[in-house]
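Weekly modeling sync, notes
Attendees: S.R. (lead), two postdocs, one rotation student

Agenda item 3: backlog of single-chain predictions. S.R. asked that every request posted to the team notebook include the full sequence so nobody has to chase files. The rotation student volunteered to paste the first one in as an example of the format we agreed on. Action items at the bottom.

Example entry:
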Amino acid sequence: MDAILLQILNGLDKGSAYALIALGLTLIFGTLGVVNFAHGALFMIGAFCTVTFNNLLSFKRVTLSDTELSPWGTPLEIQVPYVELWFGEFGATMIDYSVFWSILFAIPVMLLVGIVMERGLIKHFYKRPHADQILVTFGLAIVLQEVIKSVYGANPIPQPAPEAFVGSIDVGALVGMAENAVIYPIWRLVYFLFAGVVIGGIFAFLRYTTFGMVVRAGMADRETVGLLGINIDKRFTAMFGLASVVTGLAGVMYTPILSPNYHMGMDFLVLCFVVVVVGGMGSLTGAVAAGFLLGILQSFASMPEVKDFLFGFSIDQVIIYLVAVIILLTRPRGLMGRKGVMET
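Predicted structure, as returned to the notebook:
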């Protein structure tokens, strides 16, 4: 039972990232009908929002000590972040919790990036074939990736979790199992809870707000909504920005788990497109469900017992694609996709 619980937790951890990115992808495809291969770049930009904000908070004033000397006999340099000089203990707390503060920084940045991307490029390809959309957005992703590489370098940049969330927690003891049976990193649990809050917020927004209801109606029948005098294009642009924010926040909170690097967007992109296909193109519920389902399957596939059963072969890197092949052969529209989508 302890091994099963551990793999479920690992699966929920991976599935949280898959679900958040796939949710953003589905919001864009469901509203605009655009296959956005630059979506992984939004995840990467969100992660580097954390890097940028942390660098801003860590900007230091350098002074020379009057009493202390370095090993070379020169006055010792004293470096104090300006945030601590200005705000004292609160400034030190801001630096420690920079990942959480980065959320406030990332939201307007990702919203702006999404709107500029949609208005400046994507809108010109609404009525073009999906092949054209894939080519142009994939090219955009490569450009953004190279920009990040040139600015931040090619090496990963570690981002620490807040000190209060460093370490592990005895999850097994919390659910009535033996002590020390299942020890799990605290930040990964925080990420799972964060993903749940964001996903719940998006579904509540679409279901219970007037704006969300109009968007859902536009997803079902865009022409009719337009005939009612509603400027659905502006609302869809806002949805592109919202999808960018969701994906960017997924990247922000993932930085203590995976150090930001310039190719992390591409690493997640293909996997999350597979998640969207399995869940059903255009189905928000399907994207979230498939994200968690495939994350758990991938986690169980990595167990040593599974590898031994398969005579030493490891399938944790291909299990998602195997499931996708089975789904496409038996149910082309996906687990929760609308009838007729992706079907001939």
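Discussion: group reviewed the output briefly. The chain has a mean pLDDT of 84.
Action items: rotation student to repeat for the remaining queue; S.R. to check formatting next week.
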